[in-house]
Amino acid sequence: MSIISEFKAFAVKGNVVDMAVGIIIGAAFGKIVSSFVGDVIMPPIGLLIGGVDFTDLAITLKAAEGDLPAVILSYGKFIQTLLDFLIVAFAIFMAVKVINQLKREEAVAPTLPPAPSAEETLLTEIRDLLKAQQSKE
What we know:
Blueprint: H1 3-11, H2 14-48, E1 59-62, E2 71-73, H3 75-108, H4 118-136
Antiparallel strand pairs: 1-2
């Protein structure tokens, strides 16, 4: 088997394609959540705490000296990233919860017992015939 055919067999496996689709959707979902947090959630929170933008919160550890840049601890960006993560984690939790609930509803749906096999049907007929003969005697 050549390298190209091995790669083709690997690349078109269902799991690899599903994983690639998941990564692409996850990246797009991450952008949506970042926009939601930055543009919808954070402005009201900033307004409640006096118009502070979390991304601007920082502590200067060492001022700039000549050509050396300042050393800044940007804890506001960390807070923003933490909120992004919490919202993404909650959204994924809710999606998994809905999917699990739908699976449970599927599993609860009554399933009909399997039809008896031809052998079972034949044995049942033989049993019934034997019972009928015994009752005649």
